[in-house]
Queue: 2 jobs
Job 1
Amino acid sequence: MDLSTLDPIALIVSLIIAATPLVLAATGELVTEKSGVLNLGVEGMMVFGAITGFAAAVESGSPWLGFLASATGGAVLALIFGVMTQYLLSNQVATGLALTMFGLGLAALIGQPYAGVKPPPFPRLDLPLLGDIPVLGRLLFSFDAMVYLSILLVAAVWWFLARTRGGMVLRAVGENHDAAHSLGMKVVPIRLAAIAFGGACAGLGGAYLSLVRVPQWTEGMTAGAGWIALAIVVFASWKPWRVLLGAYLFGGVTILQLNTQALSLNPALPAGAGLIVVGLVWLGLALRAGRPAGLALAALGLGAAALAFGLAAPRFQIGSAWLSMAPYLVTILVLVVMSRDRARAALNAPASLGRVFHAAG
Amino acid sequence: MLRLEARREPSRAMLLLTPVLAVALTVLFGGALFAALGKDPVAAMRVIFVDPLFDPYSRSELMVKGAPLALIAIGLSLGFRAGIWNIGAEGQFIMGAVAASAVALAFYDVQGLWLLPLMLVAGTAAGAGWAMIPAVLKTRFGANEILVSLMLVYVAEQFLIAMVSGPLRDPQGFNFPLSRSFHDSAVLPVLMEYTRVHVGVLVTLLVVIAAQVLMSRHIFGFRIRLSGEAPRAARFAGVDRAHVTWACMGLSGAAAGLAGMFEVAGPAQQLAPSLPVGYGFTAIIVAFLGRLSPPGIVLAAAIMALTYIGGETAQFALGIPAAANETFRGMLLFFLLGLDILVRYRLVPKRREART
């Protein structure tokens, strides 16, 4: 193994690019969930945004029009879900699943002529002077506009939810729709707006995949990213800045997995290191809550064992399929660790999440 | 304008009518979609929904493709009734198929009547075990079973690839990621000559009957329904939510694993990455289309199997992409869920003074 070929700055840059679709989609879903609606159709809206954005960009030659189209596409798809759950009072879990199936199918259908087509390039922002600063220049100023927009989006959502009246209304609707209704808040229109916003963000995330990250259209290219975005919202305990953190964490896992493969490292090394980090966080959480920390210690021990094995046999290899499981396994692990402390997790979850609202009368 | 008024009791008529309406609406909108694709909608609908019924081989295929759908949907319906969402049946199906294949290949060319039952046990146990992961993580840690079970689908897909390109690969297969073709003792007996209708279809029917008895006659079925419809009442009645979760997830995983075993030992007779074709996800639609009741699920499975068979024909006869069928299935679920409101509410003219 030759670690000297690894450029840490390049790694962080690729991590952020890998995480940006997740930042966009998860932030949108956070707003939807804050209004008390659980939309499990993120995967469908993302993949639909990926193709509408791709198609629009190819046909018009403008990636910006592509992003616009993807946001519109995602929002339109989300509004189907909105009408179903808000006016027809359908079950949100099942309707979200339907949205995912429908989105995947429709995207594949629209995408038929676009397989193997190259999209117009989406340029990086060439910031004069700033981009030339030795390390920081590449680390902070070498991205395309969507990366900065995604961070701005997180900031805007945080500001909106925490500091504005509109955000308070949205949260009130999500906490207790009956009380909000009796105070004269328009529960259904507010929720529809939140759902459409979530769809638009998911669409943007999908388009970032097909226009920038990959950049190509392949059927089912989101490969579970929408579901991971849903998990990130749980990981973030419905807090916008933690969504950013969670998405970058998952971006890191993806990049680690790809590089382990490319450098033919023993996968036990990153897995062990990851387990130790998770174990430490878990231990911290458990100690703070005054709970038994047996499982956290087990994770630490397992991580140490894996790390030792990785160092002892750096040439050990496994098939790439095993490595491809990593993001999904990490998602499960994170869900378990975050959900463990139920009282704390429930504190931030919108109380009306997933419940049907019908104003009688 | 119309407004919604809650019914005192769910309407029986609507309960039966809405699935039919949903299918009709899907056909209507599907036709419009075909027309938009530049295909003749009437011809497409005939190829998908009518022609397979008049061809003897297609009729037999209806059972081959309907059986796994019904089997998985029956399992899922238990959990859906209790408000436990196992949406990872596709992964449990894969794990069942892999485990059954591993047994079949471990005893390659060993003759014996015991091999198929052993494969059956392995497949069922693997499916159940895979489903117990989200169940235990749910009851022990409160991790969302929807997300965990779905994540495990992706893990299972990668596991299948790892297996067919590693331990279970055909040694004489020129490194293609395929297993050996199973030998006779590991292949399910065929019930009807010149078809692929296998014993698994019969077992599926038995499972359907067992599920019907369980849900309508047994205390366990009552507890499942109670736990879903009135969670508080169920708690007071001493129903342990964790036990219900384990039972529902375990049983649905077992059913999906069994379907995976039937698929690999019946029509496929070989483990390949192309084995899973989305039965686990389509079964969710089947469960809802069948109104979560065993007889309804059988009918729904037949209808969905029809779209699989007709969809394949339409693909090469009319050049209709496979994705169109996927879109239909999503659409069908939308219509089903949307029309569901007619069961619980009735539409009445809006009174002047009433504001919603």
Job 2
Amino acid sequence: MDRNEVYERLNAVFREVFDDENLTVQDATTAADVEDWDSLSHITLIAAVEDEFDISFDMKTVVGLKCVGDMVDAILREL
Amino acid sequence: MHELLRYPFDGAEILRRRRRIRRELREDGCVRTPRRIAILGGSTTHDLKEILELFLLDEGIDPEFYESDFGAWWEDAVFGAALEEFCPELAVIHTGVRNISAYPAPAADATEAEAVISAEFARFTAAWEALARRFDCPIVQNNFEKPPLRIYGNRDAWDLHGRTYMTAELNRRMGEYARAHRGFYINDIDTLSADIGLGRWHDGKAWHLYKYSPAPEAVPELAYNLSRIILSVWGKAKKALALDLDNTLWGGVVGDDGVEGIEIGHETPGGQVYSEFQAWLSEMRSRGVLLSVISKNDEENALAGLNHPEGTLRPVDFAAVFANWAPKDRNFAALAKELNILPESIVFCDDNPAERKIVSDSFPEAAVPPFDAPEKYARILDRGGYFEPATLSADDLARADMYRQNAERAKLETSFADYREYLKSLRMHAEIKGFSPLYIARIAQLTNKSNQFNLTTLRCAETDIARMAESGDFITLYGKLSDRFGDNGVVAVTAAEREGSTFHIRLWLMSCRVLKRDMEYAMLDALAAKAAAAGAETLRGYYLPTAKNGMVRDLYEKFGFSLREETEAGTVWELSLSDYVPKCDIIEVERD
């Protein structure tokens, strides 16, 4: 799976979790850029991403996520 | 019901699509009962709240939540001022093994170990007692799941210093408390966590990152289990099972294979599965679940199958049997009508997906679980929690017999040309008295379950009923009706509140089990007599229309009340007590 394919599926997850059909995220996107992306919905998001890609981030990885780009890197590492 | 919320559901799907599900439920136009629920958590309860909301919205409850600050369950229960302001109608205490504050020290002797366990239990009872005193509302408390680690290995289960032992001992004491306290319910996460798997439940990552216990992936199951208790407390548990026969209660098709050809009994694995399922159904019946049959069969064949010597169930165990060739949705409607219950109170069980679809298309409010493999039938019904008995009254245990007696009454009725003669022949006897502790569970249950013969649809918890019983301003009445066929138990409830010389009828309802028996007139006579004896001059009745109570729109008019007011909210009626003439002469009534 390449980065573009990851983004395609990742955007679908974001749209579901935040119930916003028009949402599109990219490498530089952070929680500050998405309405409703707070510490609580972050937990839902992480679980949904893990579920979508059938992976499990370890704790250290989760703590290190600063932007969507980090998340995509982590997904590609796990796949 | 929302497709994604039907049991068995995909928890991960619910977690990630929760916003959309919530929006769809909120926009579906259903009328829901608003309820204030406090969630007092020993861990992060955000997900629990959000998913619980979905399951409650899906069943007609519109919850408003109070969530305590992180971990502040005890402080909130004992003296939280914000909780005071919120004034919960139900309190959930979400705690678990992570919230046990102390364990016996390794060197503790038996007495010291016991003191530690008692002190821990006392901390919990203090919270329950404070909640009961402050809010007088139902409390749902988690018991303790098994700990994630075993310091003493297998010995942990029985050694006085073991954490596993301590959770079991605390659970035992909590059970004792529940048996002794009305309105206290246990959410059995000990079983739930075992079912989900302790490894998944105790997720170190979720705890250390977010202080989630259990892990988010266990939350949908947890919220569902909790919602079944809450629904049951508020009278929304299911009442009846509508069962198919061929390949549902036995293997094979009785019409084709003959009674000797169907599979049931201990000879084959297939037969054993159906025997065990029938035995399980029989147990459910004896604790108050109504059984009925909807089967495409000639009645003769259906009855022959039900009389199979290896089966546990017999035709007499069913409150109604529809064995014919009509479409199942039509039989389903007829069944609801015959049992006088709503379609939403029935769980439809059929191995044929096409039949399930026909029924769930016509009755989206009915529960229609998948019935694909006979070895899973009982488990699906069990874990689906449809019949959660938060309260269990003597009435529940006798229910199946009461419905059978009703069938006998119906048979007798057809032999009389004159309806009054039929009523006389029943030799009815009623006990109409003030609410008493013995019947509080049943009375509260009726206020929550009765939808049709219910003038104000005022839903009450047991604590509300107890409050009315103790108030000097209320006349409260329950009515029990028996006749030559048996005892119907408590079937009518009335409560009227005094203001000056008028009694306002806040609560007036009757079980549809005793429609057209003149019981409502006997209740009115009793109320009028008590109100007059208290020196009152007027009874004021209220009819608040709902989607379901059209049958009593004209009840007060029939009683001789005059219409005083008519608004969108309903109608208001008055009756002067000065020239009241008793109306019921067909039931022998015993009053207090």
